[in-house]
Amino acid sequence: MSRTFYARGQTGQQLLLGAYQALMRQVNAGKVKLHTREEMLDLVMKDGEAVGIVCRNLTTGDITSHSAHAVVLATGGYGNVFYLSTNAMSCNVTAAWRAHRKGAYFANPNMTQIHPTCIPASDEFQSKLTLMSESLRNDGRIWVPRDRDETRAARDIPEEERNYYLEEKYPAFGNLVPRDVASRNAKDVVDAGYGVGPLKNGVYLDFKHAIERDGADTIKAKYGNLFEMYERITGEDPYTTPMRIYPATHYTMGGLWVDYNLMTTIPGLYATGEANFSDHGANRLGASALMQGLADGYFVIPYTIGDYLADKLNTDPVPTSDEAFKVVEAEVRDRIQGFLDIKGTKSPDYFHRELGKLVWDYIGMARNAAGLEKAIGEIRALRDEFYKDLKVLGTSDTLNQSVEKAGRIADFFELAELMARDALDREESCGGHFREEHVLPDGEAKRDDENFQHVSAWEWHDADTPQTKHAEELTFEYVIPSTRSYK
Ligand SMILES: Cc1cc2nc3c(=O)[nH]c(=O)nc-3n(C[C@H](O)[C@H](O)[C@H](O)COP(=O)(O)OP(=O)(O)OC[C@H]3O[C@@H](n4cnc5c(N)ncnc54)[C@H](O)[C@@H]3O)c2cc1C
Q1: Mind listing the domains of the chain with CATH numbers?
Q2: What is the pTM of this model?
């Protein structure tokens, strides 16, 4: 049995290339105009409807408006709230968060996915983590030494002194357990002091047996490019030394609430792909994110958006000279200037790293009420410090990544607090959300379908008033949820 279908860890990339090609075809046909190096910093609304966006040109700092009959956000997930993640460095929540502040409900924000198969951080200044493909668990065996104080190289540790903890604990699924189960178990053994590597922050993913069974050539044909990538990053050869892996933030199931037409609670504002909350529930399965993005983009939104646009036939979009645009442009400029004017002592990266640690420690792979309450207090205190002691060098009328980061981190603060509130409210363990108080006698996740079989969609009020929760009940007509056992 395999955990996932794969083609040399390239399936995702091939899907992306297909999507890029389709986009560029439309650009070439004159149907799509690209505005590269522009970042949406706010949504413009008039009479309760989305009518456009305000952007900052990242190279010149110019603030410009774009007007339209409808707005579609395809701005991705918010995994970088954890600071360290497998996401691209520029991924952030600002577009979705600004829409949330204008009235779009934000659903299931605490539902984040921590991928078990990433390369562990090699020092505390690292700013990005690398994902190794899900496919590796098809053949790799995960283990840690049985002795916490083990100092021998992995290959010198005899079989009987190795703890293949997933195989022992989950004999039915072994190393193929779902991502959340594999991640939590890696955290457990590392927290218990059994971690491997210089920082003792990883577990072994070993191909020794697969190579003995299938031969090095077969393994190379399957995973050769991944092994090469791993070796380039770590300097270790996975054909002779087990890989070291550890979970890292990878995907966010939460996002803007949308209906079946992919429209948010703001008329005329749509959200597609990872930016919305739909399809994945509490835990995304491997390889399904791009399929959702492709389905949203190719098969859903082209057919549903017309329903809204039909009423706008023969009307012009609100012009960007309208007061509605001018007000938001002024707000965006003031906000950026506000960050420059603080003139404190700490960089945006400092605050991002500190925030990420709080999110990872208290709203990460395992949460509990005391930790979540603590997180809310500490996130607020750090946010206050941010607005008093932030230092953004340079000016806003040029390429200035500190300016870009300051705005994104400000939004991450508010998002992080909502993630904690959402996790605190959900008194059950479910998918990526594991509450330590809610476990079965064998330590596995305990759902509470009677009280929590719903989507939590949060409504914004202001930065100092907690959001209001709206529960959207989930009705299962054909597939009835059951508790799975991987043992
Ligand atoms: C390393 C890695 C490997 C993965 N592998 C797979 C896989 O094999 N299969 C799979 O199904 N999924 C995979 N995923 C998940 C999948 O790639 C993502 O969920 C998917 O790309 C999300 O697509 P999207 O278009 O919704 O968002 P994104 O691809 O994140 O695109 C969002 C875009 O919006 C831009 N943007 C963000 N904010 C703004 C703003 N304010 N203004 C302007 N632009 C903005 C971003 O720069 C980005 O270009 C992987 C993810 C990672 C990180």
Answers
A1: 35-111+253-473 (3.50.50.60), 115-247 (3.90.700.10)
A2: 0.95
